UniProtKB/TrEMBL annotation:
Matches recorded under Pfam families: Lipase_GDSL_2
Lineage start: Eukaryota, Sar, Stramenopiles, Oomycota, Peronosporomycetes
Coiled coil: none
Residue ranges of every copy of the SGNH hydrolase-type esterase domain listed in the record: 48-139
Source species, domain of life: Eukaryota
Protein name from the UniProt record: SGNH hydrolase-type esterase domain-containing protein
Cited Gene3D superfamilies: SGNH hydrolase (3.40.50.1110)
Species of provenance: Phytophthora fragariae
Amino acid sequence: MPRVTLCSLVPIVVAFAAVYFASHLGVWEQAVQTICSKPAATRPTLLLLGDSLTEQGVDPNKSGWVALLQNRYQRSADVLPRGLSGYNTKWFIEFALPVIKRELSSGGISPSLITLWLGANDAALTDGPSSRQHVHGNTFQWILTPRIWRRLSSHCGRALRTLTCS
């Protein structure tokens, strides 16, 4: 059985006395509010935007690139994929981008890095079965992709990256 001495009780008595006097002097509430009002440190968030390459990248059975990132950063960052199979860049701007902007504006996430990987569907052949998805290369490179970045840049001042196949 441990032996209790007067010297071993001194830190406990001092702590209780400090709390007692702080609460009676009105300092305690202010200290608690200051401690509680500080924003909690959050883990970095990687927001991965794209088409089917991103959506299907979460499949660990296919060693998907998103799954590999999630595995690699599981203890240090949140990896959030937003991939939409079948979307070309025009459809992404029209339908997906407003939803993503609302999600970012709500403050629910504050990404440290946003990646954009589009173009697989844009490259559909003009005379093939997926011709409606085709987007001309110049339109993709010079008009659509910069438009997406302009709309996202206010939500991620740190890093915006475009993943390309070239």
